[in-house]
Amino acid sequence: MRKPVVLITGAGGEIGHGLVTRLAPAGALIITLDVNPLERPLAKLVTREFTGSITDASLLDRVLAEFEVERVFHLAALLSARSEFTPTTAHHVNVGGTLNLLEFAQRQGESHGRPVTFIYPSSIAAYGLPSLADKSAAGRVREDQYARPTTMYGCNKLYCEQLGHYYAKHYKQLSADVIPRVDFRCVRFPGLISAVTTPSGGTSDYAPEMIHYAARSERYDCFVRPDTMIPFMAMPDGVEALLRLAAAPREQLTRTAYNLTAFSASASDIRNVVLAAFPEASIGYAVDQKRQGIVDSWPADVDDTAARNDWGFSPEYDFSRAFREYLIPTINERYKDQTKRK
Ligand code: AKB
Question: What is the best residue among 205, 290, 296 to mutate for testing ligand 1's pocket, by most ligand atoms within 8 Å of CB?
């Protein structure tokens, strides 16, 4: 008989690392799919590790044959900056891979007779504010506003939200009694800041990079202007949000995609709090106009009322607490041996 498990794609990434380390102690049987082998400490926490691409349908067939997947956390993706260098590859992975996973979830549900809960991290990159004046005037952007992404990654994320809705509500709607459909649920993450993994190709990476470089006593030049403002969230709150959404009773959910945020901060706000923690840090600005243009198209803040009302989203870390209690002490611990050797 197949074992009931949770599937996490992109398990070795920034969100995946936090999710595996949070889920494993709770006793979840976890299988993972990542294009790279997991680091040993993470691999020891999972029941089975598949190394390969989400674009490989035959690999997913192997998973289907061996495991009864009840819940999917589909985290694997090429992020915004990296996707701009290889847009067709980004589409192939971000959209083609997600379509493979949705089809896999549908076939899993048909095989064991219950809808698979499918959790998908979209992004503030799904928004496209046309100018800084519009960004300033927009204030807290709602889910149904400004859905005009300016990056391939943002286009991918917005389309995959729609794909998920289709699989949940309309899949093969002209065929006789297709059952059961995928229980697709999605959040639009702000910039996520992790203390335990280093950033991997995002345009919001200036925030975590600033902290990690300061902790390593390395010079950092921020690639956006000091006044650049977007919403952020500490990684533990991001992981908890995914788990809370996954556990919410289906009847409480009034939408497919939910905004999330914990705090908005400018690059200057972040630089000031990092300098307060690392007075010797050397942090300057070298604005990259192309990446600046991407971040300027993202909202300064988002309205997450629907997530709070429907499934009790409530972040633990505001700006000050995120740095004081999570980021600075955890990152200091991570680099303490490295900085001693200098
Ligand atoms: C990125 O910067 O690409 C991601 C995101 C905001 O979705 N961190």
Answer: 205
In the predicted structure, residue 342 carries a pLDDT above the cut 70: no
Count how many Cα atoms sit within 13 Å of the Cα of residue 133 in the half-sphere of its side chain: 0
CATH number of the domain within which 147 lies: 3.40.50.720
Q: Is residue 57 part of a domain?
A: no
| Residue whose CA is at the smallest distance from ligand 1 atom 7 | 123
The answer to whether position 59 is within a domain reads: no
Average pLDDT over residues 196-209: 90
Mutual angle of helices 328-341 and 206-215, in 10-degree steps:
40
Q: What is the pLDDT of residues 149-164, one digit of tens each?
A: 999 999 999 999 999 9
Ligand 1 center from residue 154 Cα (angstroms): 9
Q: Does residue 63 lie within any of the structural domains?
A: no
Domains identified in the chain, total number: 1
Within a domain: residue 31?
no
Distance 177 CA to ligand 1 centre (A): 39
- Domain range for 263 is 77-341
Distance CA 233, CA 162 (A): 24
Distance 203 CA to ligand 1 centre (A): 6
Query: Ligand 1 in contact with 31 (CB < 6 A)?
Result: no
Q: What is the pLDDT of residues 234-277, one digit of tens each?
A: 999 999 999 999 999 999 999 999 999 999 999 999 999 999 99
